[in-house]
């Protein structure tokens, strides 16, 4: 647990649950003392009258000083969802309960765009983008309980944000392709282990007039794969989708890449067509 002025604080999620229980008990017309006794009997938590009063009067929220997050669909949020379903990771610190959203990538402009989108979503300054020599990659991260909880929802819950408008669709696809796609010659391929996610990607591309080959199985689960010089056992089937070569120009116009080297590879592929 964290602390404030020497007083131990309960984890945020626990405070939220206690606040909700207090509000429910108040609806039964219980007094402050009765609420305190009921909460202790049901949860073992000992509350003070000040806790109950502040929660009931709306003076304090269980999230305390957690930065506000507005889930209204915007392209920056759609982009972050696309990246999170690809390269980004999330974690919760065991001691300080920090809810971290992290990105570790080899392309600086990718990390900078992710940082910029986080700053727009949370209405704060962009988190720093730093080079780590040990991993030979650019790192950016920030802590946000509310955004982390939002991103951890199932794909079906996130689809309305992703599909909100053409700008959100394109931003989501750009984030996902920045994370998961590669160009070889005139071949643009995106891969992932989640079939439902790839079905959504194909549908979104189709809505942008970008044709694909559908979903193909690349590797079955259980195989060893080489990632950055180390072997890992693959837990999911690896599947991929090709963007048809005749749609590469439309993809560039409607979706595109943030990553400079991928932009250059796509431009080179289109010049070969000429």
Write the layout of secondary structure elements.
Layout: E1 3-4, E2 7-8, H1 12-26, H2 32-43, H3 49-56, H4 75-84, E3 89-92, E4 99-105, H5 108-122, E5 130-132, E6 137-143, H6 145-151, H7 155-162, H8 166-180, E7 181-184, E8 187-192, H9 195-207, E9 212-219, E10 224-227, E11 230-233, E12 238-243, H10 248-254, H11 260-273
Antiparallel strand pairs: 1-2, 3-4, 4-6, 5-6, 7-8, 8-12, 9-12, 10-11
Helix pairs in contact: 1-2, 4-5, 4-8, 8-9
Overview of the molecule:
This protein is of the alpha+beta class. It has two domains: 3-56; 75-273, Homing endonucleases (Endonuclease I-creI). It contains eleven helices and twelve strands. It has helices spanning 12-26, 32-43, 49-56, 75-84, 108-122, 145-151, 155-162, 166-180, 195-207, 248-254, 260-273; strands at 3-4, 7-8, 89-92, 99-105, 130-132, 137-143, 181-184, 187-192, 212-219, 224-227, 230-233, 238-243. The protein has a four-stranded antiparallel beta sheet with strand order 3-4-6-5, covered by helices on one side. It has a four-stranded antiparallel beta sheet with strand order 7-8-12-9. Strands 1-2 form a two-stranded antiparallel sheet. A hairpin with a 2-residue loop joins strand 10 and strand 11 (230-233). It starts with a strand and ends with a helix.
